[in-house]
Amino acid sequence: MIEFRSVSKRFPDGTLAVDDFSLLIPSRRITVFVGSSGSGKTTLLRMINRMVDPTAGQVVIDDTDVSGSDPVQLRRSIGYVMQNGGLLPHRRIVDNVATVPLLRGTSKAEARARALELLDTVGLDRSLANKYLSQLSGGQQQRVGVARALAADPNILLMDEPFGAVDPIVRVELQNELKRLQRDLDKTVVFVTHDIDEAFTLGDQVVVFKTGGIVAQVGTPAEILARPADDFVASFIGADRGQRRLHLEPRDPSSGQILVVDDTGRPAGLIDGDPRSSDDVPVDVRVS
Amino acid sequence: MNWFLSNWELVLELTLNHIRLSIIPIIIGFVIAVPLGRLAITGRTARGIIITSTSLLYTIPSLPLFVILPAILGTKVLSDINLIVALSIYAVAIMVRAASDSFASVSPDVKQASLAMGYSRWQQFWKVEFPLAGPVLLAGMRVVSVSTIALVSVGVLIGSENLGYLFTNGKQRGILEEVGTGIIASLLIALVFDLILVLLGRILLPWSRSDKKSQSASAALQLQIKAADAA
């Protein structure tokens, strides 16, 4: 469990990035920080592994205040994935994945063997092991980034817009992969994004931020979608724009499928069901 | 050819000495310039002071420097140390800017990520910044190498025994072949040094080659795509 207790951060130039922020992040769940840029979400994420130290308040992991721990040791115990991977271009893929175990003093042979297993875990072919970063595609690089973060088997995984720079199809693949990994490995994941759809796809708990580290709403995707706390959240999740307002259009009764259309008339998907009962389905539903 | 055949022992001795007098300043220049170059990227003031002052060093004319150094260092007037110190100063002057550029070329994302992985600052320098600065450092070293080998010959004016002797002696005695031999020998040294540096780069920085390969590969691919579009 990670706990933020009245955390504030004022940067040396005077900007207040985070103001009196408190939150409980449950273990073995995916918590997503979502907000536009300048909302302080990345700053908060970086407080967990002490890349940033708060100017007031405490960050507590499993009842231990992180300010008391050595930053270097702390970071080696927490997985970190960032946008563009942040992988080392001068090390082979297998050595990139083995980075943290090697820093922690694991023998080279053992660390490499584990790294190869991790390539399997994140769905990469072992033939990539001896390549360099520049020989991989963007999606493959992000998978290497995830494998590297998992290498020391940390309990906590911090992800800072990790899928922001890959194309939409690969992004969906990576999101599904992350959900599978989280189910299999039972990690506590804190995920930062500015994409509300990504937040709803991944998050067990979603925290919506306003500018300046102010929390607009905390809840499950269903709760936030069903009851936006205020106009800001409603607008942020797009509830006011029609994409989230869906209605059904029965099509071709023999196929048994019903078309779901949003307010702009854009087909959003299909519902399988008994065509005879389609009249009973509420005309207006919301996605959750 | 006659002159060379009857004097090859002298040429060999002068060449070896020339090599020795070049290698030492090149290495000293590198060792001093790397930390200074790294320091120069810590802030704008640091950069201003370090880059300006080291660049100014290069404007000191070499002959007066050779003459003043014994007085400053307390060395004998004819000692090789004077030449080595002077050439090291010039090597630093060239190399500091290259070193600072090389460290500035390291991606901030990679530096940030390496800290997040749990590299200590010291490990981050040696295992991330220094190797990644390698390609630009190497380019700087190739310039320093050529410049130092050329400058060594000036040392003959303060009694240093190197290939420069063939220039002055050949000119005084009107032996063109002797001057030509000196030029070819220094060119060969410069060429061999450059080859060694490039080879060192291939061995120590294998990743930067695959980088280029993939870059040219992607460029070729784009050309193909453009050609396909045009067709």
TrEMBL record, chain A:
Region: Disordered, residue numbers: 247-288
Gene3D superfamilies: P-loop containing nucleotide triphosphate hydrolases
Signal peptide: none
Domain ABC transporter: 2-237
Keyword Transport (UniProt): yes
Alphabetical keyword list: ATP-binding, Nucleotide-binding, Transport
Record EC number: 7.6.2.9
GO function terms (MF aspect): ABC-type quaternary ammonium compound transporting activity; ATP binding; ATP hydrolysis activity
Top enzyme category: translocase
Family under the similarity heading: Belongs to the ABC transporter superfamily.
Alphabetized PANTHER family for the sequence: OSMOPROTECTANT IMPORT ATP-BINDING PROTEIN OSMV (PTHR43117)
Protein name: ABC-type quaternary amine transporter
From TrEMBL, chain B:
BP GO terms, sorted: glycine betaine transport; transmembrane transport
Keyword Lipid biosynthesis attached: no
Domain ABC transmembrane type-1: 15-200
PROSITE patterns: ABC_TM1 (PS50928)
Domain of life: Bacteria
Pfam family, one: BPD_transp_1
Protein name: ABC transporter permease
Species for this entry: Orlajensenia leifsoniae
